[in-house]
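Before relying on records like the one below, remember that each one covers exactly one chain. Contacts with other chains, cofactors or solvent are not represented anywhere in the record.
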Amino acid sequence: MARNKSKKNSILNFVAVVVLTIFGIVLSVCSFDIPFTTWHYNGFANSISLGLDLAGGISVVYDCSLPSGAENKDLDKAIEATVTRLSNVIGSEYSEATITRQGGSKIRIEVPSVTDSEEIFALIGEPKPLYMTLQEGNYVEGQSIKGTDIDDVMVSYQEEKYGVSLKFTAEGAKKFASLTESAAAGDKKIYVYLGEVSADNLFQQLTCESKITGGSTFISGSFEDYEAAESYSLQIMSGTFSATLELLESNVISATLGASALKFCLIGGFVGLLLIMLILWWRYGDFGLLAAFALVIYIVLMLFFLQAISFVQLTLPGLAGIVLSIGMAVDGTIIIFERFREEYRSGKKIPLSAKGGFKRAFWPIFDSNITTIVTALVLYILGTASIQGFAITLLIGIVLSLFMNLVILRFLVKWYLPFNSTNGKKLHLPKQTRQFKEDKEETEIVLDGASIGGQTNEQV
């Protein structure tokens, strides 16, 4: 009676997991219009953000320096501030763009799925420092405003016309109030320069009628539409970078190579997985089939997390990280099943051997995966963009492989045992070299409240 109940529970568990897995596969690879809505579902696999080497796009490298007169000790801080500013400027238009510091004084900008570099240059603008002065052609420290005093630049619509709103930092707000007060009392002019203060770099003359406080201002002009005001705001914003940027290289990367690499990687991955599943079945019988099913669940979870984590961008090194993590997942499975075979060979029955296999394999699997996780974290923190792509997919894959081997596979084996607790042929088990003698009286093995006759009172 108890055995029948155990089988019934196992059947229900298997059915539930299979249904959920099929549902996960559909969500992973299928795209469709959601009925009665205007939404289109694209699938996990199609929603993964692709890096520059797979999707193609623009790669730009700038060398950073400080404006003349600035102290070199401030360069590191200025570069970090410029990276943040560039991320805000470019990220507002291209969410998949990556802006990273490279080497000592360089900044690399990568924007996938863009083939016209002029789009990026127009967005960044001509990167030159911005100054606001009271004296034409003359910058006076303490009496002028730098681009770094500006906190934000945005297009606004006030008094039925387009313009640009400037928001200053706390220090910049004080400077601007003093500047406008002096301008209102003098010739009412504020001179805006992009680049070093000289007649050639004069960007605009602003008229100021009174002192402006509050830390922000609205610049109105003859902007015909939103696009004109946006172009002006981008030029202003380009002057707020803390460092002066000099273009070193600009490359347009075709998506053809990346698409071909992705295609062959998917084909190779599918063939490799199929061969692995066949080998697992040949070596471990029914347990091998359970391991193959666990691998399918693993792939579905991997696709889900790759598209769900916003900062993950799949690159060619990232694909290598996925392949490596799959290999480690399979390696963990093999360790478990080989320990199981050793336990069975010593004379133990199948349920007790399964328990011993998982118990003996836990620490080798856990230790090896934890060291790999630490390595991946170090690579992600200290590595360049391509190394980070490898590290993040490896990190996700290793965490999922631990979950697959120590949780999913354990439950699958536990649900299987009520159907076969004595037939070693179905598990391709070797002959037992000796008879295992138990110290306790043989009673039964308990599995989630159910029981199987002929074993000691143990849990898998």
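The first helix runs from residue 2 to 29.
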